[in-house]
Amino acid sequence: MIIKDLTVEQKLRLICGKDCWSTVDFDGALPSVKMSDGPVGLRTEPIDENGNRGAAMPAVAYPSMQVLANTWDVSLAYAMGQSLADDCIERDVDLLLAPGVNIKRTPLCGRNFEYFSEDPYLAGTLAREYIRGLQENGVGACIKHYYVNNLEFDRFHRSSDVDDRTLREIYLKPFEIACAAKPVSAMCAYNRINGVYASENKKGFDILRNEFGFDGAIISDWGAVRDRCAAAKAGLDIEMPFDKTDYDKLVADYNAGKITEEEIDACAARVLGLAYKLDEMRALRSVKSTEEERAGLSAEILANGIVLLKNDMVLPLDKSASVSICGCFAKPDDINMIRGGGSSEVTRRALDMDLPVKLAERQKGKVTYEFAFRYGSADGTDDPRAAVMNAARSDVNIVCVGTGAHCEHEGADRTDVETKLPAVQERLIIETARQNPRTVVIVFAGSAIDMSAWMDAVAAIVYVGFPGEHADSIIADILTGKINPSGRLSETFVYGDWDSRSILSGRCVGVTRYAEGLDVGYRHFDTNNEPVAFAFGHGLSYSTFTYKDLNIKSKGDKLDIKFKIKNTSESDGKEVAQIYIEPIAPLVYRPKKELKAFAKVGVKAGECADIKLTLDKRAFEYYSTAIDGYKVDDGIYRVIVGASSVNIKLSAKVEIVNGVITVL
After folding, report:
1. Cβ contacts of residue 215 below 8 Å, gap of 6+?
2. In 3D, which of 612, 603, 537, 613 has the Cα closest to residue 566?
């Protein structure tokens, strides 16, 4: 079918969904697109003959997107996309509604566990590889939520008021980077952008199509359309799910001359294009892995994404050490304890996490476990005193704590209080650590946690995130040293009261003003020299590394950056090298430094790894509102090699004159 084959009535019907999860097929005359939720595992809901939705079917559960981001590993992002494609193929799903690349502007956002990072370069780069993995295996991606959807509270009405430069450099940038992978679709957000609903934001759609090279179809988030006619005129191609009231109003608006056939044709043509593109991609489909192999990938992502935040010589555990464990998160009996809530929920094949048993296998049985609490209160059959006594008599004490779907979920944000652990969990950490300073805290949470009340009292902190399958084995292997931790934070962990920060100024009824501008996450803290609990990019290892022999060569408008990383320990390990650019005396406001490249590398004990990264002139640019475009100013820039945004290892200066880069 092409546009001229369709009547006006058919075109109007085509740009509205068929039901909750698929597009119109005109009784088989056109390929129908079957969609599914599932950034971290497939959430397929069967639809009966009456259009009623059934319960989601069990599927492989992967770690949350924030854990994937903490790997800083582009190959794992690709592999996760490819693995999810296999899940989709087996369920006959054409289009996966993922990935989400919204920036973590504030840790209060209830949906942060679904997003990659506070940094647009890291978020966009990992999303690009995730999309490639999906689509090269024959399943379409849908990048979301376009755009400036950074809070869940009042998301159906609230306006995100943001200046153009901040939009371009922070909130649109991950979409721009990810569009290099040619996602076949994009999903609009619920919120307004500078007063205009995302579903009706023609300016944003034009940027996506005309500047970022996006040539797919734009789909509404479910229920995001307020005026189907206005949305179609702006360039929103498909409204999901089907809404008869909206459809009837669209027909009436067309008959009243409020929208032209040409405007309808533009949307309908892109829907046809999506249907046939995905039909062609079906020829690429072949399942390349078993379910158990996919579960193994889930474990590999977790092994690379767990972040060792603190370690005062207590980890890895000595094989002869006696260990006490407390906290229901060590052996959760409710899946909602170790996942976020909302449309990304995965019906796990089994909830089989039992850290005490797995650790006992590795510690020759010298492990005692006490339940001690459930969220805000002790269980009726539990005695918190037992956990304290166990800690006192053991060599090492482990406390397993977290948040879960009751705290972090779609449709609502965390309160400032909820950035802390529940009080009963904090008390358990403090009381057991008082009896045993060799206390290790394992945190299961989907976003940054305020640890200021107890972080100085404990010897080690292991940030797991929301894990996927085989989590107990992976965590036990990290605690005992079989796996060397290599995760690095993709967001900043700060001290204390989040709401007191300037980032949340400008909030009022119906509007969030992005008053901080470019100073999001580490950009704010580094620029203002404010101390943080754990910096962006931070993460410890059982190995130690030194950086040396920085060599930068200019090739016109590009830089080749070479250096060596030496593993100075007796343990093989992985390091994440991060490249930041710092403008010296810039002509416009610039944050102190910004991430522009990274590489995760394995380095064997006592050996060196040669790192080579290339920057082009875009690494030095900013968005100029004076010319409505990006530009690079002449001047001096510092090229920084770091192990985090604050742990600087090497640096050199370059100068740009008329677009040519010279090493100083």
Report:
1. 182, 209
2. 603
Beta strands per DSSP E along 332-447 = 367-370, 396-402, 439-444
* Residue 221 known to be catalytic: yes
DSSP state of 493: B
508 CB-contact burial (10 Å; exposed 0-12 / middle 13-18 / buried 19+): exposed
If you search the block for the tokens 């259009």, which residue do you land on? 51
Bridge partners, 16 (sequence order): 239
Q: Which phi and psi (to 5°) does residue 277 adopt?
A: -60, -45
**Spatial CA neighbour of 91 closest among 36, 18, 23:** 36
Q: Which two tokens stand for residue 51?
A: 């259009």
Strands 648-657 and 635-642: antiparallel
How many percent of the chain have pLDDT more than 90? 87
Query: Whole-model pTM?
Result: 0.97
List the catalytic residue out of 73, 87, 119, 221: 221
Specify whether the CB–CB gap between 468 and 301 falls below 8 A: yes
3-state secondary structure of 113: helix
Query: Span 131-146, mean pLDDT?
Result: 98
Q: What is the pLDDT of residues 309-337, one digit of tens each?
A: 999 999 999 999 999 999 989 999 889 99
pLDDT tens digits for range 448-466: 999 999 999 999 999 999 9
